[in-house]
Design a protein that fits this description.
heterodimer, A: mainly beta, four-stranded antiparallel beta sheet, 3 helices, 11 strands, 9% helix, 23% strand, B: alpha+beta, Rossmann fold, Dna Ligase, domain 1, D-amino Acid Aminotransferase, Chain A, domain 1, 3 domains, eight-stranded antiparallel beta sheet, five-stranded parallel beta sheet, 20 strands, 34% helix
């Protein structure tokens, strides 16, 4: 699970948009992107498909916590409104729109996309790595891999994709053992195989997530308290 | 009515359930394995959650992940489809424990009807005819001879612990009984470690005729007539139709009533199907009850004009049935062909990617599928690719439409059983309605005749 696959890193150049994205959102996992235009619908003579009718990151219902003896009660789960999937139109670029654009890049095999809409301009440039080192759980149908020969020229170094720590289960991701406590890991921390890097809570059970390989935390890809699905990248690692 | 339903399934049935939810303004959540990341049900749902790797045990059968997906999306009900978790009482129960409505029968009723022995007892107590057979195992030849008198010939000696056709011996008349009993017991011991055998009447060439029932949570119950499902290969249905050419109005009423008695006696709620065997003399015998929406439900929808999945949602939402038995009429005739991604001669699975996919259309044609150009047909799941349903004013028109539709249906990239269906639909026995569960076997034995 430690060597999950993620080859697309986008360099965001936003001109007038204010990006309400913390460091953990910049290199966004694409797994929750939803309801996007499929490959056979996208090519209408250069016209860009419209943004999805629904926004990929699901709202969190705050469920009353049914704390039982021996299990810790949950902190109430409030999502950061600025990172909400139901994004503000014409203002900040939200996570859903970002993922949609990343997907456009991938599906149409583009190196760069620039979009101007409603007074903001966004350009994404894609650095393409060499073929996917597919772990056993890598989705076979996602067209993530591109042969090295097609990698764009320029300052982008192609190399094997950095390993990521991906979610082995479905639930809510927490960075710290308890609300208010120090996170398990921060950017730059060294982890070994077996180091606990976070918790995924599901159905009132806390599950510790461990690193499967040695490495340094290069980026945190999911915000604290956000829902995650199976296979979703949680941390990007720099191998040592 | 529910705000949000999670569909714990994939393929065409997931698409079917999502559509019903959409029509009722219910928000939808799809779950998918990594092999289904681009699947149609994922595209059509409002939200989707990846729940595991391709293997069903790690994804579509993974209760924990499915419930977690319901939790993080705030779903308030789960529809299990058919197959997978749809007939697991433990799953129905845990949904309820977690505050999710399970769209289907109560766990206890599901458990009861899923246990063949218990279901048969309930049926017998409800006065529903059962295939004559011994309840307790027979041990010695005298015991067997006495029981055989009751059961009647020809009969099967079956291993109690058995299945898959093993430990079964056919006995045509009393002279063969003793020998067959000894052999069957020895086989049962060898194969299952238990020599217990029982006797059951053997029907030469029965029809498989099932009754669709609906029950709400307020005591309302009704049946929607029968489906003829005799064209089967290794107990997998391939072609279904409604009504059956062997069932007239009075037989329908009798079978329907029997099905409702079992439904009531087992405390069953929501949509279910009661399966019978119909012999050549028009006598019917209870076989089992299926506690789920079935693959072939569109055939009933076509002749009744009802949307069974929406009714499932309504019933689960606490609504009473919106019609009475007297409102149910069957009009016209419907057929369904299950088009599998399989080699049409040897029925071996044919996974791959759909290079071409152009389903038929026009009057009286319905296609329930998850296929589209570019879709992948993964090797991890069942091979059902599309259900092609036609309806007509009578059987002749339904057949003509099915032949036209099969001819129009273009698929490339995987092999399909379309040629097989084209062959059956032209066969004189099929056209004459001469059907039984031995239909395909007899066809194969007759050799390549066409």
């Amino acid at each position: 699970m430690g060597c999950g696959v993620h080859t697309t890193y986008a360099t965001l150049l936003a001109t007038r948009a204010a990006l309400h994205l913390g460091p953990c959102e910049q290199t966004a996992g694409a797994k929750l992107s939803k309801n996007l235009v499929g490959p056979d619908e996208g090519s209408r003579g250069g016209e860009l498909p419209t943004l999805p009718r629904f926004h990929g990151v699901p709202p969190m219902a705050s469920r009353p916590s049914r704390a039982r003896a021996g299990r810790r009660p949950l902190a109430s789960r409030r999502r950061d409104a600025s990172a909400s999937g139901r994004g503000a139109r014409g203002g900040a670029l939200n996570l859903t729109e970002l993922r949609f654009l990343l997907r456009l890049l991938r599906e149409h095999d583009l190196e760069e996309v620039e979009i101007e809409e409603g007074g903001r301009r966004i350009r994404l440039r894609r650095r393409v790595a060499s073929p996917v080192s597919a772990g056993p759980d890598a989705p076979p149908v996602q067209p993530l891999a591109r042969p090295a020969a097609q990698a764009p020229p320029a300052a982008v170094a192609a190399g094997p994709p950095p390993p990521t720590i991906t979610a082995p289960m479905v639930g809510t991701f927490y960075r710290a053992p308890a609300p208010g406590a120090e996170p398990f890991v921060k950017e730059g921390d060294l982890v070994e195989k077996g180091t606990v890097v976070g918790i995924i809570e599901a159905m009132k059970l806390m599950n510790e997530i461990e690193a499967e390989v040695r490495g340094r935390i290069a980026a945190i890809l999911v915000e604290n308290g956000h829902p995650v699905e199976y296979g979703q990248p949680l941390f990007a690692l720099e191998p040592l | 009515m529910f705000k949000k339903v999670l569909v714990a399934n994939r393929g065409e049935i997931a698409v079917r359930v999502l559509r019903a939810c959409r029509e009722l303004d219910i928000a939808t959540v799809a779950v998918y394995s990594t092999a289904d990341a681009e699947a149609l049900h994922v595209r059509l749902a409002d939200e989707a959650v990846c729940i595991g790797p391709p293997e069903a045990a790690q994804s579509y059968l993974n209760v924990h992940r499915i419930l977690s997906a319901a939790e993080i999306t705030g779903a308030d009900a789960i529809h299990p489809g058919y197959g997978f978790l749809s007939e697991r009482p433990a799953f129905a129960e845990i949904c309820t424990t977690c505050g999710l409505t399970f769209i289907g029968p109560p766990a206890a009723a599901m458990d009861l009807v899923g246990d063949k022995a218990r279901a048969r007892r309930v049926a017998a107590e409800a006065g529903v005819p059962l295939l004559p057979g011994t309840r307790d195992p027979v041990t010695d030849p005298e015991d067997a001879a006495r029981a055989a008198e009751q059961v009647g010939y020809p009969l099967l000696i079956k291993a109690s612990a058995g299945g898959g056709g093993r430990g079964m011996r056919l006995v045509a008349d009393p002279s063969g009984l003793e020998q067959a009993l000894a052999t069957a017991q020895a086989e049962a011991q060898a194969a299952f470690g238990d020599p217990a055998v029982y006797l059951e009447r053997f029907l030469e060439a029965p029809r498989h005729v099932e009754i669709q029932v609906l029950a709400d949570a307020h005591g309302g119950r009704l049946h929607l007539g029968e489906r003829e499902c005799s064209i089967q290969r290794r107990h997998q249905k391939l072609i279904e139709e409604s009504p059956s050419t062997a069932v007239d109005a009075s037989l329908r009423a009798a079978m329907g009533e029997a099905a409702l008695r079992i439904t009531a006696a087992s405390g069953y709620v929501n949509a279910g199907t009661v399966e019978f065997l119909l012999d050549e003399a028009g006598r019917f015998y209870f076989m089992e009850m299926n506690a789920r929406i079935q693959v072939e439900h569109p055939v009933t929808e076509a002749v009744t004009g009802l949307d069974l999945v929406k009714l499932q949602l309504r019933i689960a939402g606490g609504e009473p049935l919106p019609l009475a038995q007297s409102d149910v009429t069957l009009r016209g005739h419907a057929l369904e062909c299950r088009i599998n991604a399989e080699d049409p001669d040897r029925f071996l699975p044919s996974p791959g990617r759909l290079e071409a996919f152009r389903p038929p259309g026009g009057p009286g044609v319905r296609v329930d599928t998850h296929g589209f150009v570019g879709a992948s047909v993964p090797p991890y799941y069942d091979s059902l690719l599309a259900k092609l349903i036609t309806v007509g004013a009578d059987r002749g028109e339904a057949v003509a439409r099915m032949l036209r539709a099969l001819d129009e249906f273009e698929v490339a990239g995987v092999a399909t059983t379309i040629p097989f269906h084209q062959k059956i639909l032209r066969h004189p026995d099929f056209l004459a309605g001469r059907l039984s569960t031995r239909f395909l076997e007899r066809l194969a034995a007759a050799g390549p005749a066409d």
